[in-house]
Write a structure and sequence with these properties.
- The structure is a single chain.
- The protein is an all-alpha fold.
- It is built from 12 helices and no strands.
- α5 crosses α6.
- The chain is globular and about 50 Å long.
- The relative contact order is 0.14.
Length: 224
């Protein structure tokens, strides 16, 4: 009976949620609303890898739903601890596009359904590009292109590892990690991003230490 109810509920959710085919146009509309430039479907390598290492390290191998992450996120909802996280990039993109500002149970279900629709309709690279374009990076910067220009005066593809790691770290809490107002917190979060890049094998420990110690160009980055 439980399985039947679950199947019926899933079928209803799929039927009542919109198609994901309009996701690219929704991302463009978000950028246009905030007068922010797009990266035109191109994932900047270092930012993309830093984001995946930190936000969803199994992105390319898993489906739209990470069972372990889903359990952590569900427990975080029950205990009112949003820091447990666990949402895949697909789920985070669905949240940004289809349930912005909502965290009720119905919204969480809709995010999961829309994540599967996104996974069905688009490639992983397209989904990651849309997520980086749709995400908010703090201090009024929407999308990774605007964030790179805003904080460093550079196109995303020209960011150093240190700059890319800082940009990636903003996603969890853009206001709390805003380097213009909370530099120490932003750098601590960046250290976590570097640790994740080492953990997933993208950088060696020595390379991470060297890149983390390289100057960020604070005059451009933080208005000094």
């Amino acid at each position: 009976m439980v399985l039947v109810v679950a199947l019926i509920s899933t079928a209803v959710a799929v039927a009542v949620t919109p198609s994901a085919a309009d996701a690219p146009s929704m991302v463009k509309a978000t950028l246009a609303e905030h007068r922010a430039p797009s990266d035109n479907g191109v994932v900047p390598a270092r930012v993309g890898e830093a984001v995946l290492a930190t936000e969803d390290s199994r992105f390319y191998s898993d489906t739209a739903l990470d069972p372990q992450g889903t359990l952590r996120a569900a427990w975080g909802f029950v205990t009112a601890n949003p820091n447990l996280g666990g949402a895949t990039i697909e789920v985070q993109l669905a949240k940004l596009l289809y349930t912005p500002g909502r965290s009720d149970p119905a919204a969480l279900c809709e995010q999961v359904v829309m994540a599967f629709k996104l996974d069905h309709d688009f490639t992983k690279a397209q989904i990651l590009a849309m997520y980086l374009d749709a995400a908010y990076f703090g201090d009024g910067a929407y999308g990774v292109t605007e964030a790179a220009l805003h904080y460093f005066g550079l196109e995303p593809s020209h960011l150093s590892w240190g700059q890319a790691a800082l940009i990636a770290g903003l996603l969890q809490a853009p206001s709390a990690y805003d380097p213009r107002t909370h530099l120490s917190a932003a750098l601590a979060r960046r250290s976590h991003v570097f640790a994740r890049l080492v953990a997933v094998g993208r950088l060696s420990a020595s390379q991470a230490r060297a890149d983390e110690s390289a100057p960020l160009d604070p005059k451009i980055a933080f208005g000094g």
